[in-house]
Amino acid sequence: MYIVIEHEISNPKTFWEIAKSAALPSNMKLHQTLPNQEGTKAVCLWEAKGVDEVKVFVENALGKVSRNTYFAVEANNAMGLPAAIKAGATK
Hints:
Layout: E1 2-9, H1 12-21, E2 29-35, E3 41-47, H2 51-62, E4 66-72, H3 83-86
C-alpha cells in the first residue's frame, strides 16, 4: 500500500535533522520527500502495509515538530506513478 503524508512543519531545523538521520523500519519504504523552499511544508510518499504503521513511526519521530495528515493512495486513480504502483502491485 502507498501512503501520502502532508507535513506542516513548525520547526524546520529540527524536523529536517530528524528526518535525515532517522533509521527507517525494514517493513517501510520512503519513496519521495518533496519539501517547499522554506522547509515548512512537505509531502512524502511511503510504502507500507498500512497507514497506521507509518503514522506511528512518523508521529513518534516528528510529531512534536510537525502536524501531519495521512492518506492511502488510490493507485487506480493516481497519475504519474510508476507502472508497478499504478497496477496495484505491492512489495
